[in-house]
Design a protein that fits this description.
198 residues, mainly alpha, 5 helices
Amino acid sequence: METVAHTQPPGLSPKDKVEFLSKLYDRMSGLTANADTKAGIILTIHSFWAISYGANLSRLAVPFPLATPRLAVWATALVLAIGFLAFFVRSASKAAVVLLPRTQPHPRSPGAEGSLTYYADIVRLAGTDVGERSRTYRARFDQMDYDDIIDDLVYRVNDIAGVVDAKYRCAGEAVRRSVQTFFLWAASLVALIAASLV
């Protein structure tokens, strides 16, 4: 089979490099939003569990003394209820951590003035209003050369990659914990209903 040789340019143009880094940064920003959406769905499911469970929790209030078989069912329901509540708090708190915003960026090298692409650095620019900060931003931007822009974008891409990694690890753990919580929720509901019927 004959192969066709492709000639490739020796490197990307400066414009292509900036576009690549900008698109990569945008993609990672989208991934953080995706992790937040997953966490929101998990917390919505937890809300349903809490509402459906709360209505049945009153079934644990029974008059004592209980006959031995009924006491065993009631004790099982109580243990499962406590287990469910512990797992519920554990999985819901893990999902909530995914949603917590990062307020501090990773520290930059000593003497760095801050990023022109990171929102927290931008709002800290000198000036009392948007107009003054915009002029400060423009003055700093005009002083940047190509290497400064690439350095800023490369730094931000690596910084947000750490955020994406942390969010996805946390979201994965929240999903695993939620699956465990689901089984306890179902078993505990059945036990609560059984405790009131025995």
